[in-house]
């Protein structure tokens, strides 16, 4: 590679320049998240002035505008952490499975968590917030293992295409089971249906505090798995030759993704396509190094969910469109584009 003046650059100089560009990109992503947080506080059924935002951030609720901002603060915080969790989980799942179509929704993980929560509510009458989270995480884990087991059968093992097909079939089956469980229970049907759409409305700091420990553990495990995911990207044989315990590396990284997916689904409902769209877009700009891809995906997921929530408030005024619907409208065409872009034999 040559510099602008025609002189050649050493590999170390190239790496340093690339890292500087990535650092600038990371700073830009952080600034974008901050800007979207401000927009989330300012935009809604009622637009508010800067003075109301600043007053509400200081705890004042003396006017209607300040009260509106006070209600949007936990909603913004939930969209921030949930988007980051889903974006990071998607990047980890794509790294674990080496599957460009991997996504908590497409692989059936979100719907597994959803089915577990619905069964727990309908059949066991759970009411504890922590019980919801544990049940959702267990359901997500069982679904992930089930899909991977089904996708591993047959010639070639767990290929990306077979995993995607197994996940799609599992999601459809679990969605049908959710309907079957809810239909006889009119007393919970309304709340379950609203939760299944996926959204961040009605968030409170109390609810966020219940799920935050699970998310923090998931974030830590996932981010610390970056080096292992880089090894897995080289192939199982080469990763094992480099001293990596492939099965352990894959299981630990998957655990982080399952924690993120299960906890997010418990509080927001099953929100799809964030984990598919965000890692792909980030990979186009910063490459495949998971040490950079994972934090970029977390910030990108936060941006997408914050922007989707703001857009949902604008397009249906004075009503609101849940962010799960907005991400589906964005993600479905993106999924079709990825499938058309990739050759089936290369998936």
Automatic annotation (TrEMBL):
Signal peptide: none annotated. GO terms for biological process: siderophore-iron import into cell. It is a multi-pass membrane protein. One of its GO terms (molecular function) is transmembrane transporter activity. The chain crosses the membrane at residues 24-44, 76-93, 105-126, 132-151, 163-183, 208-226, 247-272, 292-311, 323-340. Keywords: Cell membrane, Membrane, Transmembrane, Transmembrane helix, Transport. It is found in: Cell membrane. InterPro entries: ABC_BtuC-like, ABC_transptr_permease_BtuC. The keyword Protein biosynthesis does not apply. One of its GO terms (cellular component) is plasma membrane. Belongs to the binding-protein-dependent transport system permease family. FecCD subfamily. PANTHER family: FE(3+) DICITRATE TRANSPORT SYSTEM PERMEASE PROTEIN FECC-RELATED, FERRIC ENTEROBACTIN TRANSPORT SYSTEM PERMEASE PROTEIN. This is Iron ABC transporter permease. The lineage of its organism: Bacteria, Pseudomonadati, Pseudomonadota, Alphaproteobacteria, Hyphomicrobiales.
